[in-house]
Protein 1
Amino acid sequence: MGQHGFFHHSGKMTLWGPAMVMLLALPLALIAGNLSAVLIYVFDWIAVKIVILFATIIGLSFAVYGLLRVGRIRNTTFALVVGFLVAILAWTSSWVALAQALIDGHPWLWHPGDLYAFAQTVAEQGRWQKGDQPIPALVTWSVWVIEALMFVSVITVLPWDYLRNSPYCEDCGRWLDANTSVGPFAPGGDPYAIRAEIERGNLSSLLYLGPAQDAPYWELQLRYCGLCENMYLANLVRLTLDDEGEHKRHKLIRNFYISRQQYDTLWDLDKPDKLKGQL
Ligand SMILES: [Zn+2]
C-alpha cells in the first residue's frame, strides 16, 4: 500500500500565483471595504447594515479562497498572510470611506492617528441613536471592536482553513475532485483511537462500518485524483440532526490517505450486496 497518514500541503507555489493573488486580492479589498462602508452609511436599518457587513466578510473570504485556488497556492502561511492583508486593507478603507461620507474635504489618505481621532469624535458625538438619545461612546466603541475582530479573524482564518483542507495532487498539478459520500453508518468507535490507528496506517475500524439505526451517524467522504488515479483520501464525518430535522456535518478526521483497494472497499460499504461487483 502507498502513502498513509494525513494529507498536508507541500508548501509550494507557482511563480505567478502569489503575484496574481496579490494583484487581484488587494484592489478587491479596497473596493469591497469602500462599497460596504458606503452602503452601511446609506441604509438606515440596523438589520440591513449587519447583513451588508456579513456579506462583505463572507464574500471577501471566499474571493480570497477562490484566488488561492486559481493561483495554485499550496502554501498555508501565504494564505494566512493574504487573508490578513485583505482584512486589514478592507477594514481600513471602510473607515476612510466613512470619514469621507461624514467630513467635507474628502481626504483619501489618512494617518492612522488622524483616523483614530476621527473615530473618537464620531463616538463622542454618538454614531447611532436610540430613541432621541445618542448611544454612549463606550457602546459605539464596543460595536466597532467586535466588528473589527470579526473582519480580521474571519477573513484571515476562513480562506486558510478551506485551503488546508483542499487536497492537491502534486504529481498532476491539480486540485482533487469533489467528494463522494458513503453512508450513513452507525458510529464505529472512538474517533481519537481511530485517528491514532490511521496515523499508523491501520484502517480496519472503518472497513467494517455497519448500517445506521439512529442519528448521530457517521459518513465517509471519499475523493481521489482522477488524472493519475494514484491519490486517494477520505474524511470521516459525524452527522447529527438539528431541531428542524436538517443534517449537520462535523468532520471528525480530515484528509487521511487510503489505498485504491481501500477506496473500493469503503465505496462498497453502503451498497446492497447484490450491486457489489457490478458497479
Ligand atoms: Zn494526480
Note: Helices lie at 16-42, 46-70, 76-102, 112-125, 137-164, 191-199, 204-207, 260-268.
Protein 2
Amino acid sequence: MILAPMVDQSEFAWRMLTRSFMSPESSENLLAYTPMLHARMFTETPKFRDHHFQPTRSGLSSPPKAEDPLPDLYLDGHPEIDRPLFVQFCANSPDELLEAARYVEPFCDAVDLNLGCPQGIARKGNYGAFLQEDWDLIYKLINKLHLNLDVPVTAKMRILESKEKTLEYANMILSAGASLITVHGRQREQKGHKTGLADWSVLRYLRANLPPDVVIFANGNILRHDDIFSCLEETGADGVMSAEGNLYDPTIFAKPPPIGHEGQEYWRGRDGKGGYRMDAVFRRYMDILYKHVLEKPPPTRPPLFLPSDPQPDAPPTTANESAQNEGDDQPPAKRQKRDKKSTSPNLLAIQPHLFHLLRPLITKHIDIRDALARSRAGDIPAFEHVLQLVESAVKDGLLDYDSDPAKYEDSSIPDAKEQEANLDKDESSVATVKACKRPWWVCQPYVRPLPKEALENGSLTLSKKDRRMLEEERATEKVRCEQGRKSEREELDERDGMERGEVVRDGMVAG
Ligand SMILES: Cc1cc2nc3c(=O)[nH]c(=O)nc-3n(C[C@H](O)[C@H](O)[C@H](O)COP(=O)(O)O)c2cc1C
C-alpha cells in the first residue's frame, strides 16, 4: 500500500496520520512518498530546502556524508516513525537531480523521479509528464542516480497513447536503472475535469509483458479500502498507490474493524456500512501536530461522544449554537499569538487537509466551513476551535441518526452485487457515488464527476476542436442524456447540498 506523492499534501504530519491507522503488524506495508520537490530549487535555495524537507533540526547546509553522524533528527524520514519513505523530485538536469538526491539519501529508502506532473507549471519548467517527449533525457536522469546513489532510484510515470508505446516507455525507464515503476493509469491530458478513470487494462498489459521480477505499483481509481484489492487482482501489480482517496479519507489503507469492535473512533450504521468519524480523525491529526511538530503535549480531551453515553437533560447544543456561544462564530478571543509567517510544511497544510477531510460535513455546516476558511496557517487555537465545532456537529449527527436511522439510508441504493452488474463505470459515476456515500460525519471519498458528466453540468467547457469532435461522436452514437433534464449525478450532489456554489475547491492534481 502506497501513499502517493502530493505537492504540499503528503507532508510528514499527514503521513503520520495515515500510518497511525495501520495496525502494528501492517504498518510496514505502507510506503509513503514525500511531496514532489524541485531538484534545482532544492539544491540552490537553502530556505526552500528548510521549508520543504526537515529531517534534522539544524537543517541541511550541505549533503550529509555517509560517515557523518546525524545527531539532531527531527521529522522527515525519521528512522523510527517515518519509514519506508521515498523522496520525489522533479528535474530536467541529471547533475542537479543527483545533487538534490545526495541531500536526502540518508533519510529515505529510494529517490523517485516525477514523470507524471501534467500541470502548466511543469510544461513551463520542462519536467514531469513533459519529459515524455525526451526519452534520452529521462534515461540520463535515472541512470545518473542509478550509478551514483546509495539508495535505489524509482520513477512514477503516466500511461501513453497506446499500451504498446507504454510498454516500450516502461522498458526504457527500467533499462536506465529504475528499481521499480509506479504507473498512473491516466494519460497526460487527463487532468482537472478531464481526469476520468484510470485504465487498469494498460497496467495489466504491462504486468503480462514485463519480466515477472519487475515491481509495478498501480495508481488510479482507488476510492475505498476494498478498491486496493480489486486493483491488485485486476492489474496483477505488486502495490497500489492512492492520492485523492487518501486526502478525503486518510484511513483508506486501514482494514476496517470487525463488526462489534468499532470502538469510539469507527462508526457503523445499522446497514453495516461505516467509516472513521471525522471528529476522531481530526483529533488524531491535531495530536500528531502537537507531539511531533510543535513538540508540546496536546490538550487533555474528554472521550469522544458516543450515543450510548448518559444524556444530560438539556437538549444537545447544535454546532451553530455552539458557534454563537463562542461569540459570533469567532475563534476564542484570548489565545496564543499567531504564528503569522508560518513556514512549516506541516502547519501550512492543515487548512487544505481539513477542507478535504471534512468536505461532506462542512457542506452541511456552513458556519464550520467559514470558521475553517478563517483559520490561518499556524493558528493552532483557531483549528482547535474548528475541532470543537466539528465534535459538536458529529454529536448532533449521531444522536439524529439514532432517533431516525431511516433518514440516512437511501433505499434506492442497490446492494453490492446489483451495483456491480449495473456499473458502467465509463459512462456514469452515479453507482460509485452511491456505493461510497456515508453519513456526513464519516470520512468518505469524493467521487469526481466523469468528463461527460462535467460537460453536462457545465463545469467543463470544450475547445472548438473538442466540441466538433464531440458533435460528430454524438451524431453517430446518439445522445444518451435528455437535454434540460437534471442528471442523476447532479441530483445526488444536490441532495448532499453540494450545489456548485458550495463546492469546496479541490486540490490540484499534480501527477
Ligand atoms: C493534491 C495533489 C497533489 C499531487 N502532487 C503530486 C506530486 O507531487 N507528485 C506526483 O507524482 N503526483 C502528484 N499527484 C498525483 C498523484 O500522486 C496521483 O498520481 C494522482 O492523483 C492519481 O491518483 P489518485 O487517483 O489516487 O488520486 C498529486 C495529486 C494530488 C491530488
Note: The mean pLDDT is 87.
